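User: I'm writing a short report section on ligand binding and want a predicted complex to refer to. Could you take this sequence and nicotinamide-adenine-dinucleotide and write out the structure as tokens? A short remark afterwards would be nice.
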Amino acid sequence: MAKLENKVALITGAAAGLGEGIATVYAKYGAKLCLVDISEEVEKTAERLRKEYNAEIITFVGDVSDKEQMKNAVAQTVEKFGEINILCCNAGICRLAPFEEMSDEILDLHINVNIKGVWYTCQAAIPYMLKNGGGSIVIASSVTGDMVADAGEAAYAMSKAALVGLTKCLAVEYADRNIRVNCTQLGYARTPMVEKMALESNPEDPESVIKDIARAVPMKRLAKPTEVGELFAFLGSDESSYITGSQFVIDGGSTLPETMSMGTK
Ligand SMILES: NC(=O)c1ccc[n+]([C@@H]2O[C@H](COP(=O)([O-])OP(=O)(O)OC[C@H]3O[C@@H](n4cnc5c(N)ncnc54)[C@H](O)[C@@H]3O)[C@@H](O)[C@H]2O)c1
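Assistant: Sure. The structure tokens for the complex follow:
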């Protein structure tokens, strides 16, 4: 039996980037899916996965920072599939700016999408998970904020570190009611978000930024979205049944080196 067969999963930010990678792996392992995104492109992702994996998928076009919309997304999932077992809180945004120039608008966007978006999605799904007798929540945090950061990422880093705290609290609060909550801490994957950040970092030569990221990673490359999807699938599945409140770094070793020059290599 495929590891996610008979599981119903809702994935946010599933139109592109990592969310699309997570959705692809979930479809491969037989999950029934509700793909949520603010972009209508999410239907194209769903159509591809229906064709490739014969997957049962509904889509919901909505904004994770809108509480009512997330309630609707979860309600429609349960109406279609009867329950919800896994929540992948992946949708997120990143805008770079020097700290002293960072506008309240940018700050609020990170709080609304990256923090409140996860909060509302979890609040909408947990009552149904409790009715089902449990579930698994996987939250996309980052190495940024909790472990490392680059200049200009103050709002993003703060929002991603906040998700580690939310993970810990929800994990302990629901552990005896069989809802597990874990977070992933990714280094870099090449997605539309990272391509945009590279452009903001060096408008003349964004490709050099991507190359420099890869050069600094011990594995010498960025992650593929489906590699991140495999981690989300493990954490969503019963294979991780005794894991809760944990942080999973997936970064090709990028946070390991102490320097770029010291040592025998
Ligand atoms: N790509 C990386 O290297 C990286 C590293 C660490 C963490 N992350 C995290 O992984 C998640 C996905 O990142 P990505 O690189 O795939 O981003 P991306 O920008 O490439 O894709 C994000 C998707 O989320 C959707 N989205 C954006 N705002 C939304 C909203 N308010 N409501 C619903 N959908 C919304 C977008 O339309 C898009 O389809 C984010 O939470 C990000 O912080 C990414």
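A remark for your report: The chain has a mean pLDDT of 97. The chain has nine helices and seven strands.
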